[in-house]
Amino acid sequence: SQTIHQWPATLVQPVGSPLSLECTVEGTSNPNLYWYRQAAGRGLQLLFYSVGIGQISSEVPQNLSASRPQDRQFILSSKKLLLSDSGFYLCAWSVGGTSSYEQYFGPGTRLTVT
Amino acid sequence: GEDVEQSLFLSVREGDSSVINCTYTDSSSTYLYWYKQEPGAGLQLLTYIFSNMDMKQDQRLTVLLNKKDKHLSLRIADTQTGDSAIYFCAEGTGANNLFFGTGTRLTVIP
């Protein structure tokens, strides 16, 4: 069966520090991968998605970047965190291609920028 | 872009029915979804409905779709304390093209 992992679960970082959040998927090949941010009262905001290694689409301009160095690994990064980067970050995957209907979510990372 | 709107909060008494509403703007949606997020966790798909359906029932859950008004609702019968969570409405044409609402925080009062 497929599983999705995210770490760390919780992170507290000072303003201006770098960030690296990791997401890995097991039990499937060539998944579509997604990074979302959830802010209070604002729902889920899609940040990045990837249909393959090295292929990243950015949905909103911001202080963050994403990379997909391996088929089932998706990394969210920042060189210098801002206070506004605080939130709950969710990674998700779906079956590769365009025919699937469901996204499967990881447990999330709670980031607090101080 | 696509808009998906929900009320932010809903409180119900245990044993009552809960109705969570959602409106959307994209008339080309193929699928409409309800996801559940328990505290501190990721989202899990509760149920979904094809855009050519009016209703779908699954045990205590009933989904109603009014495509003309672009209105989706989720009814939870006999609401339990374990149903307390955030419920997200989403619409799209497939898994790689989903738009989520703001989420409705359901609080079940014992």
SS-derived structural category of chain A: mainly beta
Count of DSSP-assigned helices of chain A: 0
- Biggest sheet details of chain B: 6 strands, mixed
- Which spans of chain B have pLDDT < 50 for at least 5 consecutive residues? none
Show the largest interface: A-B, 24 and 22 residues
Q: What is the number of E strands of chain A? A: 11
Number of strands of chain B: 11
What is the H/E order of chain A? EEEEEEEEEEE
Oligomer: heterodimer
**Category by helix and strand content of chain B:** mainly beta
Fraction of residues in helix of chain A: under 10%
Report the principal-axis shape of chain B.
globular
Distance between the termini of chain A: 38 Å
Residue-averaged pLDDT of chain B, rounded? 93
Distance between the termini of chain B: 40 Å
Radius of gyration of chain B over all CA atoms, rounded: 13 Å
Molecular structure report:
The complex is a heterodimer of chains A (114) and B (110). Chain A is an all-beta fold and 114 residues long. Helix content of chain A is 0%, strand content 56%. Chain A has no helices and eleven strands. In chain A, the strands form two sheets. In chain A, strands 2, 4, 5, 6, 9, 10 and 11 form a seven-stranded mixed β-sheet that branches. The N and C termini of chain A lie far apart (38 Å). Chain B has strands at residues 4-6, 9-13, 18-24, 31-37, 43-50, 55-58, 61-66, 71-76, 85-94, 97-100, 104-109. With 110 residues, chain B is an all-beta fold. In chain B, a hairpin with a 5-residue loop joins strand 4 and strand 5. Chain B starts with a strand and ends with a strand. Helix content of chain B is 0%, strand content 60%. Chain A binds chain B through residues 32, 36, 41-44, 49, 51, 90, 92, 94-95, 98-108, 110, and chain B through 4, 6, 8, 30-31, 35, 40-45, 48, 88, 94-96, 98, 100-103.
